[in-house]
Amino acid sequence: MLDDQTETDTLLEVNNIEVIYNHVILVLKGVSLTVSKGGITALLGGNGAGKTTTLKAISNLLRSERGEVTKGSILYKGEKIQDSNPADLVKSGVIQVMEGRHCFEHLTVEENLLTGAYTRKENKKSIQSDLEMVYSYFPRLKQRRKSQAGYTSGGEQQMCAIGRALMSKPETVLLDEPSMGLAPQLVEEIFEIVKKLNEIEGVSFLLAEQNTNVALRFAHFGYILESGRVVMDGPAKELRENPDVKEFYLGLSGNERKSYRDVRSYRRRKRWLN
Predict the structure, then answer these.
(1) What values do phi and psi take at 271, rounded to 5?
(2) Can you give the pTM of this predicted structure?
């Protein structure tokens, strides 16, 4: 397990970035983070904290929403990527699985998966081999491969979205809210598959997630965002044991769950952001 990022090679570096929407709305306020090769890094925080914006800044999908990185730098393997074309970024090994899955509903599951290989130039045999690899991790998709994606369950669509990303042969996957709208059992299943992909295939993950409890069990390192700033970071094991994280994010403050305005973390959070 990669509990210490300093001992491993850094793939992705985000250095003090600011993001503005519509030329006036400042969303990210000096966010810095790193993703280690072969690691699972969690980006945690509530709604509006800036998790999705951070991922879109890395994958260069901000411009379609009138957003832009106005300060700082984003490096992948030491090279600046914030001005790269998103398709070129996929070819270099970075791909994002969007929040809400975004499968092509009118296509079959298998056709959805094959769209992930669009940027690849290999022969059909190589692509077919990778399709079978995806099916080995997601056997449920193989059973439903001829079904229209729009008629599959939310969990199956999330699996399809991750499988489609894997078809591009990525080195790093940006995974946005994989647990959203899914039953706890399915969330566990998907995170277990992410863990296997990390350990067996060597895929690195940066996942944005509100489900702090699950994310910190599977991640190696974590960052906590509040209102566009990183307010805490560290190895996942240490964050799980941190009293503020336990109280505010995990709801483990004694015998009863409190409102976040009642716990001392809220007051500390106010101090963090001053």
Answers:
(1) -70, -40
(2) 0.87
